[in-house]
Amino acid sequence: MNGVLLYCRPGYEKECAAEIQARATAMEAYGFAKVKPGTGYVVFECHNAEDVDHIAKKLPLDSLIFARQIIALHARVDDMPLYDRVNPVVTACEGLEGLGELRVEMPDTNEGKELSKFCRKYTVPLRQSLRKSNYLLAKENKNRPVLHVFFIDNISVYIGYSYSFNNSPLPMGIMRLKFPSKSPSRSTLKLEEAFHTFIPANEWDKRLGGGMKAVDLGACPGGWTYQLVQRSMFVIAIDNGAMAQSLMDTGQVKHFEEDGFKYEPAKTVVAWTNRKLNGNKIKVPENPSVDVLVCDMIEKPERVARLMCKWLLNAWCKEAIFNLKLPLKRRYHTLEDCLEILNKQLDDRFVIQAKHLYHDRDEVTVHVIWRNFLGDSSLKL
């Protein structure tokens, strides 16, 4: 097959298709997206067979907003007999070799979930047969490409591979988190997933450490504040509504009943220093008063984007995590407009990332940080 398979949230196939179309074209890998609403996946058909592997290898998955997984397609098998769904898949794997891991998956839909029990049982005999045929290594190897068998129904599958350095290590590309019972709202999982997605685990203590200062705009009832408090951070919560008393009782939260668009942190003198980026001298802040700004306000996304630019350009915070609520119509174009605002106002001193997280709904989570506060900062004195 001359195609790339991408997993996404059901209902966001058009956005995923528009994104892969634009990104592939920018790589001069031409083709067209095949979309069926509500399926939870998109197939991008390439005009040239060589482009399939090129996209799977060179288009970074973490740079895609709507895709949860990216797979180079090898074959599709239909009308498998219910009494034998192993041998047709093994036969279709001809031409593949040295694969280090097998994942049997299905779409993140109600129909897909009905296949989950079967897929778990099916994995064992399929793995054994693939190893006997030498398509799969005798022992699992995390450094080798991954074989994906993706059931679109109980008798039809897509077969393909992903590269270990450019795929999601999570089953179906989904980060499943346990809801903490003491959190005042389920929105807390959005921020927790954002931490895992945008901040490397070995930098959590430095960037989300105890005693650090955070601001939560639109905080009530405190789902995002809860995550910050759990990290032993001190939080200024801004919202005209009421905060959960359990959070106020920690002594780590100050609540100001103000409009998140009007609140400004206490004025402090920001020290600036000169650094070099790509041979050019630039100024970056040394001591923003707020370590982390978070924002999950239900507002027009363009307005939120401009507010975040204001905070960052004034060096009121080192980094920001915020949600852009997408309208029912023009979701992809609205997001493009917001990212254009961010890219135009924030220069190369900042790193911008965006992802449609599993715990997001009709929103995209964005992370922006001053480059000099990254653990692997490319700025030089």
Topology of this structure?
Blueprint: E1 3-7, H1 13-26, E2 31-35, E3 41-46, H2 50-58, E4 69-77, H3 87-92, E5 101-105, H4 110-113, H5 116-132, E6 146-153, E7 156-162, H6 188-198, H7 204-207, E8 213-217, H8 223-230, E9 234-238, H9 245-248, E10 253-256, E11 272-277, E12 280-285, E13 290-295, H10 301-313, E14 317-325, H11 331-345, E15 350-355, E16 363-370
Parallel strand pairs: 5-6, 8-9, 8-13, 9-10, 13-14
Antiparallel strand pairs: 1-3, 1-4, 2-3, 4-7, 6-7, 11-12, 14-16, 15-16
Give a short synopsis of this structure.
This protein is an alpha/beta fold and 381 residues long. It is 28% helix and 26% strand.
Describe the structure.
The structure is a single chain. The chain is an alpha/beta fold and 381 residues long. The chain folds into two domains: 3-173, 2-Layer Sandwich (THUMP fold); 188-373, Vaccinia Virus protein VP39 (Rossmann fold, 3-Layer(aba) Sandwich), CATH 3.40.50. 28% of the residues lie in helices and 26% in strands. The protein has helices at residues 13-26, 50-58, 87-92, 110-113, 116-132, 188-198, 204-207, 223-230, 245-248, 301-313, 331-345; strands at 3-7, 31-35, 41-46, 69-77, 101-105, 146-153, 156-162, 213-217, 234-238, 253-256, 272-277, 280-285, 290-295, 317-325, 350-355, 363-370. It has a seven-stranded mixed sheet with strand order 2-3-1-4-7-6-5. Helix 6 (188-198) crosses helix 8 (223-230) and helix 10 runs parallel beside helix 11. The longest helix is centred in the first third of the chain and has 17 residues, at 116-132. The chain starts with a strand and ends in an 11-residue tail after the last strand. The model has no long low-confidence stretch (mean pLDDT 96).
